[in-house]
Amino acid sequence: MLSRRKRVALLALLTALSMVNVIDRVEAQSGSVRIATDLELSGLGGLTGGGHVTWTLTGGEAQVLRAKIVNLFDYYAAIPAGFAYGGNLTGRTGLSDGILQATEASKYTDFLENELEGIQFGGSRTGIEVRFVKIDAADILEKGFPLDRSTDGLVLTTATSAERLEIRFIFNARTISENWRFRFSDVVLANALHRVFDLAQVWRSQNLNPWPLLVEPGWHSVRMADGTGKYALWAGNLSTYPPSGDPMTGRYDNSTARTTRTFVEPGVNYTDLRFGTWADVSFRYNGTVADTGDSLRLQVAPGPLFNTWSDLTSEDGYTTLPNTLTWRPIRYNLSAELGRQVRFRLNFVSNATGNGAPGFFIEDFAINAPSRFTGMIESAETDYLVGTLSFQDFDLRTGRANLIRTPAGEILLYGNAYNATAPPEDATHYRGFDFFENPQVLFIVLIFAAYLTSWFQDKIFAGFRARHPLKYRPTASRIKILTWIARAFILLFILFYFVPSVFALFGATNAFVTGPIFWAFSISSTAGLTITTWLIYERQAKFIPPEEEGEAIRTDSLLSDGEAVPPPPPEAEDLSRQRVLTCSHCGKEIEDLKDALKCRCGQVYHESCASSIERCPNCQRSFDIARPAEKRMVTAKCPSCAEIQIVPEAADLMQTRCEACGALLQEIQRGYNYLVLAPENDLALEWFHSIVKKNVPGLAMSTTFQEKLRKEFGFEGVDLYWLTDTDSGPKSIDPKRLDFEMMRALSNFIKRTKGGAVLVDGLEYLVVENSFDRVLKFVKKVNDLASVHEVTLIVPVTAGSLGSDELTLLRKEFDRVIETSGRAGPVPPKP
Fold first, then answer.
1. CA-to-CA dists, residue 619 to 205, 586, 615, 633, angstroms
2. What burial letters (b/e) apply to 175-210, b meaning 16+ CB within 10 Å?
3. What's the rounded mean pLDDT across residues 722-738?
4. This prediction's pTM
5. Model pLDDT for residues 196-228, shown as the tens digit of each residue
6. CB–CB of 410/394 below 8 Å?
7. In degrees rounded to 5, what are phi and psi of residue 18?
8. What integer best gives the mean pLDDT of the chain?
9. CA–CA distance, 107 with 242 (Å, rounded to integer)
């Protein structure tokens, strides 16, 4: 299994990949606000702690906010009435100079602090909700130091400054609930920057004073007789109804023009709409006029003189108010007036034809110009949470989130870019404690699953080994594929626990390994692998040789743990006795191998029996008794399965297969450069396979498609490249790009893999696509690299494909040249 150091390194790598995948620490895009937040909360169930928020504005968004700050805090000595912090000093010293001084900027950050804490001047602290927490205290990052320590691009800038604007705050926070579904949205934080400039000049009609309207000549603030106790503004004649009566029974005068204008405070008789994102005027009215020559209109006059009046049209299309017998709301959109200072008035006009009506009554007059952020927001959220909490039920549609689970708690990372007017619908669920999702419980599941997976492997193999007779027990070995599968499962347990959002790395944004999935995977994989391992070893146990009769274990030959001392290895001269040959004709044992004759079909005969029958009864081939080299037999040990084989003395062991496992009886010597000349390339491929199957790193380049090579030769774990000009895949190389793509792939592999193996199949194809001189130089470079790094290089060439002169030059570049007449025999069927 992996060592402790390797497991720690793997976890660190996975954590780093997850964080890089979600959060990009580059500058915000032009014309947007980037909101980077982090939370550090801890506790059981409900968490408390704090965090940081950094607003980074660029381009037009930085200019818009900076212009608002300058136009309010540098333009006015005190904030005008109607603004969110009306009546407060702005920090301006002296006259307005168009430059944002430190005292003015500090006032702005003070009010921004109030917005984060959910309070306004003179109000109580309520906090604001951001995702799954409530912020109830905030301040600039470095309180008590110059503001430049907590901001960039703010102090000493102007309304037209174009540099980046950054503001950094620290805050206290607590989770809203222990069971809370929330959306990933930072709109409330983006709006906090602008809410300082909210404007609301409102007349509550319970007040006699109709501010922001003036009670000018001809207009009166009268108490209505409808029992509400409200006051209304009326352009009528007070003498036309009793003082304690109903104003609705009064009348207005003929041939009059009465106006009432808006007013803010002494020195400010206009409404400043330079800060609003949108604006409107609204009020309620009641009453009628005698004829169409009498009317009431809302008008506006822009600065700086405020004396050129134009009519406004209501949202439902009225310029002149229509008659009504009930209180009727009306609203005027002021989008055309944004960005300037204006003044409003109500203008009542009557002609001389009659006044048999009360006129109009106005109440609840209001001018609203809220300031909000409407551009692009880039969210970068990192939440470090320590406790029993868990996040679950992710629903990600446009953003990307990663979750890192640890025994101490969870780390949640989220990134997205969206318009403030259309916040993302991405959401997830926060739970204070959930048994099946709890990170501490899941860590225990991880430990047990990993331990049991390894323990069952050892236990089952120990039982399998104990079933062998004593003299065969040392030869019992584990099935490597099962060992590697167990390691792979343990790695998956670790990966799925610590990085449940691992599939987000591959684009599956909603594919999270939730707690129930982790439970199910851990239990089912541990049980499934255990059962599979037991079945495979049970099958292998059927081939255990039986214990010989009379074999006994002496107590003086036992080790301290009860295992028998393994018998000494057989002497070299006794190897020939480990396999007994029987004549296929007479059925008697062939005691001397020199008297044995082996037919090509595999049958063995006494030489005398072969002479008498002349033909093999099995395959009907004639025996050639006259060729002593063919009839003389020798023994060879298979390097793969260690079986002793009886083969003709003249046989080429590098082309002769083991009858038991099918492996070649002699492997190629590693660490040399080989040129293989043969009618076919199969032997070269098999020699290469005999090296890499022993867990030696390998790379093969061939004109044969990769999957075909894997299917025919079992090149599992080998880095395969396809030499072709018809495919542009990542593992396909154009043979014409000899000195670039091919050389780079080979060089990278050889330099990082000392002692590996490389196969370059298709040299003839490279010569056709390039030239022999280029290919020869290429071969020399590869040979030199392979020699330096002790890499075994095998280059097969089809006999007759190159000229004699070319072949002579090629031979000089290799350590060894092997010429074979063909391919090895077929692989024997498994018993």
1. 118, 17, 8, 20
2. bbebebebebbbbbbbbbbbbbbbbebebebeeeeb
3. 85
4. 0.63
5. 999 999 999 999 999 999 999 999 999 999 888
6. no
7. -65, -45
8. 85
9. 52
